[in-house]
Amino acid sequence: MASQQLSGINVFAFLAATILNDIGRGAAPLNSLLMAFGFAAANAIFSPLAYWALDATAAVLVWLFVPGTTETTSLEQMIYVYRVSLRRHLLYQLTEVLPWVRGRLMPGVSTKSPKSLYRWNTTKSWRTAQENVRGPFNVEDRAQHMEEL
């Protein structure tokens, strides 16, 4: 809806009868009013559909390409999240989360919760949490950890 305001299409909708009357010199005023009504009807019908499609497309792209950071509580954990490759994140979303969402939306289909893409230490100790996040980034452990993901 904001794009309509910024593009000036609503100005045309407001002045459509006058503009169409000026363009079609000699046309009956009733014809320009009917064309303006047709334009307004098309605008009213298709604007919400286009707005919904744009929002839905944006939501799907964000879901696919932007890793979630709601579980992160520190900068080290944020680094850990963004070091996971985009390919790995896409595969996780498409093979783990999507079947789970589909199973939740379809009645009668039971699915298990998707396993987590990230391994967080569940203890409350700050030092243990720091060691858990820092651990996979040691040179020796990194290759093994990435294979486990």
TrEMBL record:
Highest taxon in the source lineage: Eukaryota
This protein's name: Uncharacterized protein
Origin species: Coniosporium uncinatum
